[in-house]
Automatic annotation (TrEMBL):
<dbReference type="Pfam" id="PF07690">
    <property type="entry name" value="MFS_1"/>
</dbReference>
<protein>
    <submittedName>
        <fullName>Alpha-ketoglutarate permease</fullName>
    </submittedName>
</protein>
<feature type="transmembrane region" description="Helical">
    <location>
        <begin position="372"/>
        <end position="398"/>
    </location>
</feature>
<feature type="domain" description="Major facilitator superfamily (MFS) profile">
    <location>
        <begin position="25"/>
        <end position="429"/>
    </location>
</feature>
<feature type="transmembrane region" description="Helical">
    <location>
        <begin position="279"/>
        <end position="302"/>
    </location>
</feature>
<dbReference type="InterPro" id="IPR020846">
    <property type="entry name" value="MFS_dom"/>
</dbReference>
<feature type="transmembrane region" description="Helical">
    <location>
        <begin position="37"/>
        <end position="55"/>
    </location>
</feature>
<keyword id="KW-0812">Transmembrane</keyword>
<feature type="transmembrane region" description="Helical">
    <location>
        <begin position="246"/>
        <end position="267"/>
    </location>
</feature>
<dbReference type="GO" id="GO:0015293">
    <property type="term" value="F:symporter activity"/>
</dbReference>
<feature type="transmembrane region" description="Helical">
    <location>
        <begin position="314"/>
        <end position="331"/>
    </location>
</feature>
<keyword id="KW-1003">Cell membrane</keyword>
<dbReference type="GO" id="GO:0005886">
    <property type="term" value="C:plasma membrane"/>
</dbReference>
<dbReference type="InterPro" id="IPR011701">
    <property type="entry name" value="MFS"/>
</dbReference>
<dbReference type="InterPro" id="IPR005829">
    <property type="entry name" value="Sugar_transporter_CS"/>
</dbReference>
<keyword id="KW-0472">Membrane</keyword>
<keyword id="KW-0769">Symport</keyword>
Amino acid sequence: MARPMTRKKPETVLVAADERLTSRAVLGATIGNILEFYDFGTYSFFAIHIGRAFFPASDPFASLMLSLATFGAGFVTRPIGAIVLGSYSDRAGRRPAMTASFAMMSAAILLLAVTPSYETIGIAAPLLVIFARLVQGFALGGEVGPTTAYLMEAAPAERRGLAVSFQPASQQIAATAGALVGEILSLTLTSEALSAYGWRIALLLGAATLPFGVWLRSALPETLHRPDAQAPDVQPVRRSPTARRIMALGFVILASCTIITYVTGYMTTYALNTLQVSAPLAFGATLISNTIGIAAALLGGWLADRAGRRHTMIWPQIAALLMTYPVFFWISESRSALALLGGLGALTLIGTIPYSAFYVSMAERLPKNIRGGAFATTYAFAIAIFGGTAQPIVTWLIHLTGSALAPAWYMLVASAAGFCAMLMIPETAPLKIQNAALR
């Protein structure tokens, strides 16, 4: 028989000995995640302006609530995207799932950026915005699980914590980029111009990354078939008790992390709408907070590799619990630049560290054959329930009580729930497990 004229190109797979390739692959996955979360986070920063464009109302509170509800609509499709794209990453590989997620995300943000206002096309405008948000939610639902699995699988065992910490750090980088764009636009444009088209510029900057992001992710080597090194002993069964338990605890911790993240991301709107500070100060506070969050996320991963996952989760979480109410009291009473910048920055520094350690801990405890889908599904349901409702709930609580401390109450409840779940998470650091076995 004649041999085929063409042969399928062999899949590039990471191997443990190729540290240079591993580092490059981790960087590629992280950059793609930065680009995606910039797009998603920008909507939050410009919620007031988007509300005016697509949801005009005589009551500014009603317009803001409609805008935030549409922001929440993107969380409805997150679980669907998590199941579809997360499971796809466990079957076909991490790379194709991440590439598909990025392409859909960029197309949705482009649609949102170019949709005419309500005054131009009427009811079609909010309908198109809602559709774009649903597509964005689907794409991001399948983003976090495969990316976290990829970072954990691509890294050497002794540096998994630091590698996986680029997942939360990349979200902070994206939020910082969005806040920086908002700061620049608020300083260079008038309030009228910012409401009319300034927010569209910010969205189009994210959409412009589509060709680069698709190319970057399509060139990543695959990690799905790389042999695990020093992985904790878990049952490689889809419905194992270990997997179910870690997913249940993970849901609580991710819900806590989600509420804290989205309430913190809401600080621009909070500062403008509740504290009545200037736009440059509001965007500047978010910019500084997110910049600190980048360092805190990487510090959490670094500490998790050295001190273990549990210690890095529990002690900073206790500190964050003790700090939350005093910081918000200081901000709400003084309404000064020092309180807003210093208080929010300190809370971000302490509050971000535990979740980097948790990300790698959960990824290590999940069997590889379900890691991408299980992590994505747990994350997506926590985000869908608590992320999509966090900002509307805080806005409603402030409106109902008239208290600027409402965000602190919500964050305290979330932090306490996350702390209780962290206490039940077992240690997964490979070096810690080896040392315990030798004793």
